[in-house]
Amino acid sequence: MKSNFDFLQSEFPVLSTFGCLAEKYCFSDPNSCLMKLGMIGESIVNLMFTYDRIQLPYDNTAVTRIDNLQREGLLTRDLTDILHALRKARNKAVHENYESVSECKILLEMAYSLCEWFMQTYGDWNYQHHDFVMPKLEHKKVSVTQEEKAAEEKQVEELTKQAEQKASMADAISKSERQKRAGKMASQRPKSEAETRYIIDEQLRQVGWEADTENLRYSKGTRPAKGHNMAIAEWPTNSTLGQSGRVDYALFVDTKLIGVIEAKAIHKDIPSVIDYQGKEYPRNIRKEDSKYKIGEWGEYKVPFTFATNGRPYLKQLETKSGIWFLDLRNPVNNPTALHGWMSPMGMIELLEKNPQEGNSALKALPYDFLTDPNGLNLREYQLNAIKAAEQSVIEGKKNILLAMATGTGKTRTVLGMIYRFLKTNRFKRILFLVDRTSLGEQAADVFKEVKLEDLMTLDEIYNIKGFEEKNIDKETRIQVATVQSMVKRILYNDGEIMPAVTDYDLVIIDEAHRGYILDKEMGDTEILYRDQRDYQSKYRSVIEYFDAVKIALTATPALQTTEIFGQPVFKYTYREAVIEGYLVDHDAPHHLETKLSTGGIHYKSGDTVMIYDPVTGEITNSELLVDELDFDVEQFNRQVITENFNKTVLSEIARDIDPENPEEQGKTLIYAVDDQHADMIVSILRDIYSKYGVSNEAIMKITGSVGGGNPKKVQEAIKCFKNENYPSIAVTVDLLTTGIDVPEITTLVFMRRVKSRILFEQMLGRATRLCPKIHKTHFEIYDPVGVYDSLNDVNTMKPVVVNPTTSFTQLLDGLSEINDDKQTEQQITQIIAKLQRKKRNMSPKMMDYFISMTDGKDPSQLIMEIEKSDVQEAKKLLFKYRDVFKMMQETKANGSRPVVVSDAEDELTEHSRGYGNAEKPEDYLNAFSRYIQSNQNKIAALNIICTRPKDLTRKDLKDLRLTLDREGFTTQQLNTAIYELTNEEIMADIISLIRRYAIGSTLISHEARIHRAVEKLRKKHNFSKQEQSWISRIEKYLLGESIMNVKVFDEDSRYASYGGFNKINKVFQNNLESIVLELNEYLYDDGGNVA
């Protein structure tokens, strides 16, 4: 008997056999049919791993294997859906003795389509599609004996072995070529209406609907029922559209008709379906079905309508993909594309939602409880961030970005925002999305600790679900989750429950810059992603999946961040935070130069060098060098391991750090290149400090490999660094670069060069937090590799190539598709820029290959020839030498490249501070003096400080400090320069420093100036006990601030919470204003001698 699966016989006989057997059993033994179909899917998956030489996953289950192939870019979402459908059907058949002829018929056709794709991708590339023919019903039952079954199994076992052997011996195809082929064939694969309906049924079931097109049909007597949420197929209406006027699905929550779905063929434009059938059916609900209506909205008797063709949402094919939705309750609403289905609960909540009421409640709700010193105690800028976010919500914005410097209290800001949104019912359920478990735990701790209203914390007021609790319910108001967990649940979901797009109506994203750090190493926790670009794609997919308002927070907005969320609606920068006293500044960085870092490491022709292989861990001697080999400091610890350089600089740095005294000196964080480099640093430091009896526990590596990569051990190490005395020195790679709060960090050591501005600023951000308990005033930077200077002048770091991870093959493929000369020129520029980078790292062997394949041209000569040619000639030239670009791409070593090991001796040559353009502290102070003198009459605030300082306002001072900061003059660095010049530690404030270099006042510390003025005030007055208490509070305030005037009593929460100026004025018998004026006189009463 002829089988649909005969076409597989020549290339994949095992698949042909399974297919023939499945057809044979379809009507007579549907249970066996489902088992054979499941084996088709399993065999295809296993063969793909063998053909493409992909390592089997550690958790080697059918689900994980399918998901890994999807992550590798070899399976599209619809193919993944088919494989999971076959797998689940087989499991039901095996474990529940399940059988269904109707399901067999649908899955047979889906399995056939899958096999055609597999043939076109892994077998005969010339194979052409043939229509599937459903097997005929055999009226006589096919009986199979046990002996025949055993023979079948033996045959299948043998064929499976042969198939695996053939796959293992097949010529390897490049990953990119296979991905391209797999994607192309998947896009051309015909999809039947039955397949579309089957997949839609499964998707609806996953978000809480009872759906089964074959069995839950109107014609089979299915009707709405209390306690059931049903998608009933082929529901009749009075519509005259089509043959029957039946809508594909009618959605019922209990007995309420809440929506309709129209399913169409894969090639159909969906918005046009919404405009016709999508509106036609809700207009024409039959009279006898009026009992199911929940209301009428003009001519519509159903509130919501959907249309889909079963294709997953793609931005590039927006009108031909996704699930299109229209809320019919308001005629101004437009259809929108959703990334998934709404749940029954979500649709009911959507019906009940009233954004206008929520907006009005937000406007009416006072902010008092957010500034309560006994509660959240938010600062002014945090309130402004919340107000900006709320205003954007009220204006109807869906994507909102807040930019707040690291350490300025984003989590507390989020807490205040969440509470206001929930209290006013503006949002029903909020997802707080973080990219690391540790960040989520940090946030959860704040939610549990900070009192809001009636001495209750957020988790006491509202139901919060943590990381372990995946499923939400009606009472859930907040869910904390990681991006990784949502990627698994949304993009790789195979379970019974999937998040619905309506689960959350607000998503708050912390550290929204993540995923856009070009030179960050991919960690073990990111194995869900093929590469950094894949992370970006999946990150964005998760964020855009929910039909919700998105509010993102970041310290360092990147271009890609603003592409998703738009420009920030609120900004609070690191410099502003330092100037206002909410973060500490860093001092002038320590530059350490050694003989090797300034002179480099050189090997002569004929030398032998030691080579370390990071993959095997072996160290071997190279052959004699044909050419010279040179390394500069930028390549140290990456391309050349030089233990002596590390020993030299760490010995010098260790002189300034006391690891046994973190209570006073704070803690140190060292950035290494990779895990092996981190081990080396720890070993060197332990050796240095062992001479002084320092415990090994004081110095610890904290990377993703801690405890064998066990996440719990990693978290324990982070908590120890944060909460315990030891370790006081932590060495990390990327784990501690983002979002981990350890206020005690006072020293950063860069043993690694980075090129990304975003990553560098995140690294600096680890040390910016205030820490009063150790009297932290600033933090130190030690920079033996020159990273600070390399990035110091860069405000926005843009790579030369738009996407550095794009391969030559991808660029050339793109070039072949472009016809426009301007776009062609841009693409050629990209290729040249990539070649310029590539040529710097070419080995002699690769250079020889290059020259032999380009008619004797080296890379520079080829670049010159391309640049001299016109656009079309350059294009032809690039295609002519396509093979050389392919060679350069594929010559890249598998895994990490070998690293040279150097034992060259080293010694420290200089340890200096970096004062911008000034070489010495006296140069820096002279430059400051010149600036003050020349700008005293140009900058109003400078003039006020020099002539009438008591009139200075907080805004004047903030603006002045920002101006000075832009010129490179900070309070911390000015004081350090004075100390280095005079060996006298004073710590004066910026007002005293300006007056010293403008009018020659003698310099005293900020603290001494405040104490002197307050003491003078106390001696002049006979204050009561109550007045004395307020004078002490004012003194304490001035120690942290530089400005005191009567406005402060109403503007600052420390005074406003006690009743502000009016209340405190009564304590001073209505003399408070004159007292403040007198105090200001004493603050600057120097007679030309004391500032």
TrEMBL record:
Domain Helicase C-terminal, residue spans: 649-819
Any one GO biological process: DNA modification
Every Helicase ATP-binding domain range: 391-575
Pfam families: DUF4145, EcoEI_R_C, Helicase_C, ResIII
Keywords, comma-separated and alphabetical: ATP-binding, Helicase, Hydrolase, Nucleotide-binding
A GO term for molecular function: type I site-specific deoxyribonuclease activity
CDD domains in the record: DEXHc_RE_I_III_res (cd18032), SF2_C_EcoAI-like (cd18799)
Its EC number(s): 3.1.21.3
Uppermost EC category: hydrolase
Annotated region described as Disordered, given as residue ranges: 163-193
Keyword ATP-binding attributed: yes
GO cellular-component term (any): cytosol
Gene3D superfamilies according to UniProt: 3.90.1570.30, P-loop containing nucleotide triphosphate hydrolases
Signal sequence bounds: none
The keyword GTP-binding appears for this protein: no
NCBIfam families, per the entry: PRK11448.1
Protein name according to UniProt: Helicase C-terminal domain protein
Source species of the chain: Roseburia intestinalis L1-82
